Amino acid sequence: MLEDVLRQVQDGRLSVEDAAKQLATFENLGFAKVDHHRKKRQGFPEIVYGEGKSADQIIGIAKALQAQNHEVLITRISQEKAEQLQNVCPDYRYDPVARLLFWKHADHRESRLKGYIAVVAAGTSDLAVAEEAAVTAEVLGSHVRRFYDVGVAGIHRLLHHAEEIQQAAVSVVVAGMEGALPSVVGGLVAHPVIAVPTSVGYGASFNGLSALLTMLNSCASGISVVNIDNGFGGGYNAALIHQLINKGAAES
Amino acid sequence: MLEDVLRQVQDGRLSVEDAAKQLATFENLGFAKVDHHRKKRQGFPEIVYGEGKSADQIIGIAKALQAQNHEVLITRISQEKAEQLQNVCPDYRYDPVARLLFWKHADHRESRLKGYIAVVAAGTSDLAVAEEAAVTAEVLGSHVRRFYDVGVAGIHRLLHHAEEIQQAAVSVVVAGMEGALPSVVGGLVAHPVIAVPTSVGYGASFNGLSALLTMLNSCASGISVVNIDNGFGGGYNAALIHQLINKGAAES
Amino acid sequence: MLEDVLRQVQDGRLSVEDAAKQLATFENLGFAKVDHHRKKRQGFPEIVYGEGKSADQIIGIAKALQAQNHEVLITRISQEKAEQLQNVCPDYRYDPVARLLFWKHADHRESRLKGYIAVVAAGTSDLAVAEEAAVTAEVLGSHVRRFYDVGVAGIHRLLHHAEEIQQAAVSVVVAGMEGALPSVVGGLVAHPVIAVPTSVGYGASFNGLSALLTMLNSCASGISVVNIDNGFGGGYNAALIHQLINKGAAES
Amino acid sequence: MLEDVLRQVQDGRLSVEDAAKQLATFENLGFAKVDHHRKKRQGFPEIVYGEGKSADQIIGIAKALQAQNHEVLITRISQEKAEQLQNVCPDYRYDPVARLLFWKHADHRESRLKGYIAVVAAGTSDLAVAEEAAVTAEVLGSHVRRFYDVGVAGIHRLLHHAEEIQQAAVSVVVAGMEGALPSVVGGLVAHPVIAVPTSVGYGASFNGLSALLTMLNSCASGISVVNIDNGFGGGYNAALIHQLINKGAAES
Amino acid sequence: MLEDVLRQVQDGRLSVEDAAKQLATFENLGFAKVDHHRKKRQGFPEIVYGEGKSADQIIGIAKALQAQNHEVLITRISQEKAEQLQNVCPDYRYDPVARLLFWKHADHRESRLKGYIAVVAAGTSDLAVAEEAAVTAEVLGSHVRRFYDVGVAGIHRLLHHAEEIQQAAVSVVVAGMEGALPSVVGGLVAHPVIAVPTSVGYGASFNGLSALLTMLNSCASGISVVNIDNGFGGGYNAALIHQLINKGAAES
Amino acid sequence: MLEDVLRQVQDGRLSVEDAAKQLATFENLGFAKVDHHRKKRQGFPEIVYGEGKSADQIIGIAKALQAQNHEVLITRISQEKAEQLQNVCPDYRYDPVARLLFWKHADHRESRLKGYIAVVAAGTSDLAVAEEAAVTAEVLGSHVRRFYDVGVAGIHRLLHHAEEIQQAAVSVVVAGMEGALPSVVGGLVAHPVIAVPTSVGYGASFNGLSALLTMLNSCASGISVVNIDNGFGGGYNAALIHQLINKGAAES
Amino acid sequence: MLEDVLRQVQDGRLSVEDAAKQLATFENLGFAKVDHHRKKRQGFPEIVYGEGKSADQIIGIAKALQAQNHEVLITRISQEKAEQLQNVCPDYRYDPVARLLFWKHADHRESRLKGYIAVVAAGTSDLAVAEEAAVTAEVLGSHVRRFYDVGVAGIHRLLHHAEEIQQAAVSVVVAGMEGALPSVVGGLVAHPVIAVPTSVGYGASFNGLSALLTMLNSCASGISVVNIDNGFGGGYNAALIHQLINKGAAES
Amino acid sequence: MLEDVLRQVQDGRLSVEDAAKQLATFENLGFAKVDHHRKKRQGFPEIVYGEGKSADQIIGIAKALQAQNHEVLITRISQEKAEQLQNVCPDYRYDPVARLLFWKHADHRESRLKGYIAVVAAGTSDLAVAEEAAVTAEVLGSHVRRFYDVGVAGIHRLLHHAEEIQQAAVSVVVAGMEGALPSVVGGLVAHPVIAVPTSVGYGASFNGLSALLTMLNSCASGISVVNIDNGFGGGYNAALIHQLINKGAAES
User: Fold this and answer.
1) Beta carbons within 8 Å of E129's beta carbon, 6+ residues apart
2) Of B157, B160, B184, which to mutate for an interface test with D (greatest number of D Cβ within 10 Å)?
3) Is residue E16 over pLDDT 90?
4) How far apart are CA B195 and CA B176, in angstroms?
């Protein structure tokens, strides 16, 4: 692309000033365009982190994204602020457990990907983070199956679902307190496990530090970890891998 | 016992001075005697922490204990120092993995307790700590069954032994890295689990802190925790409970 | 049990499909049944962690347990939520200090176990955690004696009760701030000590971390530790040991 | 498979005892067999963590794996111990930088996967960890391109390779000190980034804690993290994803 | 005293039962009486930690102390709770900055000790903790001189008062943020310095941890440290030393 | 100056008492005068930390400063308290984002310094801290250019402004979460970078600790760090350097 | 003293230049002279921290101190380096346990102070730190009584010596592991307790952090804390208080 | 510069291929050239971090720098490795205390900058870090004055040099243990203070963490902090500011 611009300058089809402008925003760095390509190819929207942004700010960003028919996904947004947005954008859906607000073009509401993501959660208290992961992945185009309340202290509950989890394309495993669940799942499956520690627990759980360290130190292979309570990160990573697997299939 | 002494003083059978001496070492506080009773009743020796003590110091303490036919158990003692002691006390046995040196009167070498303690360890690297727990419990009079290399990343290895672990009187569960094993064992058994974190691991295991926090935050009931690498503490607690269960049986 | 099922298949008494179903939920894992056995043998109910569950959810679980005549114990439940439950289940008792809600079948309200558990607490500020331990143990069938406000800074208060604590089957020792009490108790008694650090304190107590580390590093033997403020864990462990000692007595 | 066994029992082709044995190691738990399938399908060997294992132990495990024509990969193994193994197994290769010892069947030495993994490292001091990641991925069947010494303090070095990194299937990004590289790479690419913090640094890097926290808190999406210095984990995760993408392609 | 009791028993002047009772509360342990002696000799009251105690509980304790003409000092008590007490005990004084409530017998309101305690504070934000120290020392019978807002960032403010601080019997030095003041004072004076870190500060002050570590690591001799925000501890230690110095003078 | 005073004493022009007084407040230490010189030479006012001070206290200090025609700058002051001051001092300006209240003499409102300070911020959530830095520098006499929302996860946004940042006299770089921005800026510029970590983030950001460690460990040269959220510190350091550079120019 | 110099200038007895010189080293700051006074009055030498200093450097400082007949005390000095010094200064004594090298003028070798310091240590492993405290206090002129191996896990050992500890002028209490001993001693005595945490312990003792936190959080009054393993600090503080008490006695 | 290239393409003076090559290394990113300009303008060499690099690697880099007549500065290099380099490059000088190896062109050995940098260090143990700062600044072209052993525990030592420190262009203040020195210096001077914490200390200094936190929390303005033991960083920042001040002077 750089050479194209240069050739147009050489041929007089492009003035020096216009070429400089183009190269400054794109050829010099080339990221904005790639960004556009990425969205077209993968259907991945720009994600908006809602915390600390005003409703007005969010509406502005959301409309810009929607104008390009991209999905809109706003994370960590309170019910109250979401309702302000829904007054303006009535076709936005809000999930109060996952605290996500999102919009998808009618054409993209059905997942076109083969296979599914398993979202596995240890306890009912981890539900909000697990749902943030699950709904994020769904908005990004994946089909999700949920396996909740299957913590390691009653290992049979997990094993009961072992086969169904094993057949997923990728797993997101959410756990607080001792955070041992990803290790057990990681030992059962042959696909990547995205581990999400939660701040659920008390005393020496130190707001999720305990679960975080457990997951980082897992002796099972194929596990990687995102930040404490970062359900969005878990869902995003899983959807990204899920999409690449499908893309691999589509390209062959 | 206080009243006995007073009565003897009243009756003139005991001088004021002798009574004062007795009460000073025993009636005032009453612990030395209880200590003796405890050993007689339970066969529990004074344990010697070997680290930082010279061979001569250890020999002195050991001989005093042995003189009363008590078992002798010296923990955290190097092979080299142990051999110095064995030159003087040739009937002492040394376990180089557990780094324990001990002696038992010939009459007490067979466990007279019903049932057994399960010592469960996650990885082969946790062996030294697990053996410190197992041999400690054996020296203190318990029978021990070992279940090693049954970490949660291959949960079937543990489940294969589930029944035998369930039938133990008490379990000591040793694990490093993510330290998740006690949670899983705790969910399988109906007896107390003494969890021993080990400093095995690297990076964010922080010398056992990760495993320690995991175990303290376990969502399984019936688990309590001892210090990092404290295999002795695990074995001692288990043997204490095991003995009390048997004593309960014997007294009824 | 596995062989029974196989034999029935061999004999044609059981179809392949039914056998597969049975083995999938029970023979493969075998835990649900053990769970039932455990409750029958030991009278230990499933414990419900109340925090983060709605009153409706708790009512559902409680009724299921009660239907089997199991005791019901709900921990960390606020007065307000407890009263909602008591409207539906008027025979449930609530302890506002321990924040426990529980129900016991009329036949099981008296402890049938020999001996008692000592619940020892350092300061009046540790009361809530100590009561969580004590009431938990009582609901689980143990008799409890309380020794409160006997912190180490006035050691004579503790020593005054030394003998009565020594005669307990097991001790739960609760302390915040410097958390030194379990070490002193552990040096006085010949039974297991479950140490419970509390988040009581200020400044460098770091929400109970100070007391937790103290207890883990205790130089007294026979001490194991549960999570910060985990009075329930202390009471549960103690009741478990107490019951096993009695069971030992009953079986002989 | 469970139903197969049952049918053989029903037909009398299999005795109850033999069926019980099979189900004990497989049907009860079902993991060993799945393990075998996994290797066949994916070419993923059992990985041997070399630290703390004797040369003899490693030789035993290695021969068992090799007997099934599986690749053999031993991590964290010193040159000295590796040479002991090479005396017995002269066709094993040792990589002294990555501290990996491995063997591949002659038929599998060429990667059959489309695309490549980008291993990106910040500084020359991160080399050992980066090579552990790269060689691990190569042994597991991926093609790898290395981009070393492209730390963020000279951002042009990274940008020079931006396009080639963007075209990879997945990236492993290795960095110590401030650990900022994964954030920058994560913002440039549309594929998963496995971030590996290293313990390189001094002072307040606290043995990799600084880099670890940086990576967990990355504001770029699509990043997940493994343990400090865990190059193997980075390579394994990347190879796993790379293989699944290819498998997706092959299956369609 | 033990021998006295024994002799009375021997002489028949004291019954066994009465002797046992006396020895149980005093001879066995001997602390209660010593406690009484301590108060008589030194005028040091039992201190009541007000936080977490109800107004009624505090009133009960306060009246018991007052009944013996001891000073009453209640720490960490809110204005609201203090006013409840003042309704019952109108001659109690409350200091809202130091959050102390206290009563002294009219005869003891003037300090009879020679010399004074210097309470030195770095910033105006440390005022509450400094006042807790100062008023505590005053209630315990010391004269106090206050040197506030003399932090090290304007060292001349401190040096201006150097001589007056040097002539104190003992110093309490209160500082938050970087907590450097005790080191500078410790280098100027020839008497003990009690350092009190405060939780004043933000960011990396970590609620006083920064100041605490600074003080513990002081390279000046003669400094010892109490807990974060523990103004009471600072004042108590200083008053104790001040009194002993005077007592030394009085006894000679 | 010391010799001047001595000479006046020698000549009888100054009494011993008056000389002693002068030397006590100035010659002995000499800082107050220097302080005045500093302000005259550099136009740097005494800065008032507003948190924890009453409106009345602040008004007193502000008036004293204003009386000498110094600028007045009060940091960390709430809107409510600022309005109380503005009632008394109506020509004071309040910046609600930066939470700064300030006054400048009409003659000093225009910056007379050559060049500008670049204030660079990673995300919109870092705005308050960045503005505290920017407005502080402006009040202290610098011209400031702001570059906001240029975090490393979209590196092209930063590079777009690279040249303008490079031409600044000094940069203040503000970032939370992973805090990587100063490293990238530090690698682009040839002037000092003052890095300001913010407490923006969640989970393992630990209230800014993550960003702080990142910045301290930066492998780019020319970076130094101030406390978490200490925008004032960043702005002050930058203004100080900016002024010295100009002073260098003016003096030559 | 300032006025004296001024008067001499006024009277022409002192030139301006000489007066300026005197005031520069003393009147300006006034500390050197006070330093000299302090030593004369209290017999307190300058203490030399030996670690990181060469033998030659230490010899230089030691000779300067000795030249004024001050005691010489060098801390943290290895046997090897001490022997180098003893070659030059044969009348220096070395204590290999306390790692102290010292010299006292023959006239000052006997303590002239009334009363004694109690140095109390929990375990035999704390011996080195306790001896550093004890010998420091002895060199500084105090008489010391040692109470070793009286840890709280066998509380009767401590209580046996309670009276003798109570009669000390001040106590230094040394403990590692859980560090609970100062709390118990602090509750028994009516004099200041200097608590010295040691790095003795393993696992979660974190090199003395556990003991340090315990001591800072002690609920006994009259306790202050010095740095981990800082036996010198403990001994110095105690000797300082001891001397002031005696000085109080001497002055009255 | 971008437009220059474009114009040359437009005029046919530059081929598209050559222009593309130029823009790829420079116009696209523009950093390499800026780098060169930076060195020419400021005389600042590329700095080589010696730790973890082989002697051969360092020789290669050093020769490349020297070829352009740039100064060569290699940090953290051991005497042994330095001697290997000196065999090849005999005109390199090694400073064994600062552990720096460097070479300067004969024409640049004298500082041409006006003014000096003050390097201030608290204790003799901080010498190595202070020298790393001082020699770094000297190699980079600054004149340096050293003020060592002026820690806050003897504040008069620092004040004795106050004027000379105040007249410096910028200060580097190095301190371990409690790290209080930068706060005191920062309150005395009207120029930037670069604070360098050192890992000197023991116990709760936690390898420099204590000093680091102290410096970050300094209540003096104009202080910024570099990593623990990062003497190089301190010297580099100071030299950078010093040079800009001179450049400001030169340009006007």
Assistant:
1) E121, E174, E196, E198, E229, E230, E231, E234
2) B160
3) no
4) 11
Q: In terms of DSSP bridges, do strands E72-75 and E100-103 run parallel, antiparallel, or are they unpaired?
A: antiparallel
Beta-strand relationship, E223-225 and B144-147: unpaired
Q: Are chains F and B touching, using the cut-off of 8 Å on CB pairs and a minimum of 3 such pairs?
A: no
Phi-psi region of E141 (alpha: psi -120 to 50; beta: other; left: phi over 0): left
Q: Does the distance separating the beta carbons of C28 and D20 come in below 8 Å?
A: no
Of A42, A212, A246, nearest to D190 by CB-CB distance is: A42
- Name the residue in chain D with its Cα closest to that of A213: D227
Return the H-helix or E-strand segment holding A237.
helix A231-251
Q: Are H98 and H135 in contact (CB under 8 A)?
A: yes
Instruction: Answer yes or no: do F212 and H216 touch at CB < 8 A.
Output: yes
pLDDT at D26 over 60: no
Judge contact between E226 and E194, C-beta under 8 A. Answer: yes
For F241, which of H114, H241, H251 is closest by C-beta distance? H241
- Answer yes or no: do B159 and C29 touch at CB < 8 A: yes
- Listed in sequence order, the residues at least 6 apart from D179 whose beta carbon sits closer than 8 Å to its beta carbon are D122, D195, D197, D210, D211, D212, D213, D214, D215, F178, F180, F214, F217
Smallest CA–CA distance, residue D191 to chain A, in Å, is 7
Q: Cα-flanking dihedrals φ and ψ of residue H103, to 5°?
A: -145, 135
CB contact under 8 A, D203 and H52: no
Q: Cα(H235)–Cα(H229) distance, rounded to whole angstroms?
A: 12
Residues D71, D76, D81, D87, Cα dihedral to 10°: 20
H244 contacts in chain F (CB < 8 Å): 169-170, 191-192, 241, 245, 248
Residue C95 burial (CB count, 10 A): 18
pLDDT at residue C41 in the model:
40
- For residue B147, the cross-strand partners are B120
Run of H or E residues at G167: none
H52-92 pLDDT tens trace = 778 888 888 888 777 776 788 999 999 999 999 999 989 99
**AA letter at C73:** L
Single-letter residue type at H196: V
Q: What is the pTM of this model?
A: 0.85
Backbone angles phi, psi at B223, to 5 degrees: -110, 130
Q: Copy the structure tokens of residue C26.
A: 């029970």
pLDDT at G87: 92
Residue E234 has what pLDDT?
A: 97
Rounded Cα distance between F151 and H154, Å, is 45
DSSP G240: H
Mutate to test the interface with A, among H3, H8, H13, H16 (most CBs of A within 10 A): H16
Domains annotated on chain G, with CATH: 2-104 (no CATH), 117-247 (3.40.50.1970)
pLDDT one-digit tens code per residue, G123-171: 877 899 999 999 999 999 999 999 998 888 878 788 888 889 999 999 9
Note the pLDDT tens digit of each residue in E138-190.
999 999 999 998 888 878 888 888 889 999 999 999 999 889 999 999 988 98
What is chain H's length? 252
In our burial notation (b when 16+ CB lie closer than 10 A, e otherwise), range E70-104 reads: bbbbbbbbeeebbebbeeebeebebbeebbbbbbb
| Length of chain E in terms of residues written | 252
In E, minimum Cα distance to H157 occurs at E187
pLDDT < 50: residue spans in chain C: 24-38, 40-43
Q: What is the C-alpha to C-alpha distance for residues H233 and F216, in angstroms, rounded to an integer?
A: 10
Cβ pairs F/G, distance under 8 A? 43
The predicted structure's pLDDT at residue A182: 94
Chain F residues in contact with chain E using a Cβ-Cβ cutoff of 8 Å:
24-25, 28-32, 51-53, 57, 197, 199, 208-209, 212, 227-230
Chains A and C: 3 or more CB pairs within 8 Å of each other: yes
